[in-house]
Amino acid sequence: MASPFLLPAVLALAFAQALAYDPTPLQDFCVADLKSNIFINGYPCKNPKTVTVEDFSFSGLNIPGNTKNKFGFNVTIANVMTLPGLNTLGVSIARIDYAPHGVVPPHTHPRGTEFLTVIEGTLIAGFVTSNPNNTLYQQILHPGDVTVFPIGMIHFQLNIGKGPAVAIVGLNSQNPGFIFIGDAVFGSKPPIPVQVLEKSFQVGPNVIQELLAQFK
Ligand SMILES: *[C@@H]1O[C@H](CO)[C@@H](O)[C@H](O)[C@H]1NC(C)=O
Ligand SMILES: *[C@@H]1O[C@H](CO)[C@@H](O)[C@H](O)[C@H]1NC(C)=O
Q: Which positions fall inside the Cupin type-1 domain (predicted)?
């Protein structure tokens, strides 16, 4: 018979994993030494004697990012690279600004689930599940509405309001990563062979050349 302690232990483990996707810390903090030339998973810790309160802070999430780019969005992110105290803590936060009609094109975060809260404006937000269903879960979000994009799922947002929109997102990784589908598939360096893209998307070379030109 299973030990009566087994179930609570398994549940506790499951909850611990739900709190953070990144590995759990083994000490109070491990402020990233961003200049270290030791390559490990994450960053080595700065000498705790040189750690200051500035290592645990980031400013500027009140400042709109510049959305004058072809997609009309801007991400201001406090991750381990911009807030070194996040190293080993498994969280990050970002502000997203959307111009009117701005889109955050389909992308995924390979290392984090995303929690999105709309502060201003109106967004359509959605994600698509994996094969074979590829189900789209899409909704309209207003200020105060929250949605979640499960780790690894391809997701997007579009500003459908008349003015700018703003969202704050939290992610359960110190470095969730971004894979924009268009950039990865049509903008890789060097490019994926045209024959691969033609056969994969079942279109001719002209369509592929046009797509490649968009993501140079
Ligand atoms: C985002 O906004 C910042 C601050 O205005 C700007 O420096 C940066 O170039 C913008 N990024 C993009 C991709 O437009
Ligand atoms: C995927 O689609 C199949 C067939 O419609 C269905 O049986 C299954 O429950 C779906 N899976 C999920 C996770 O929605």
A: 59-209
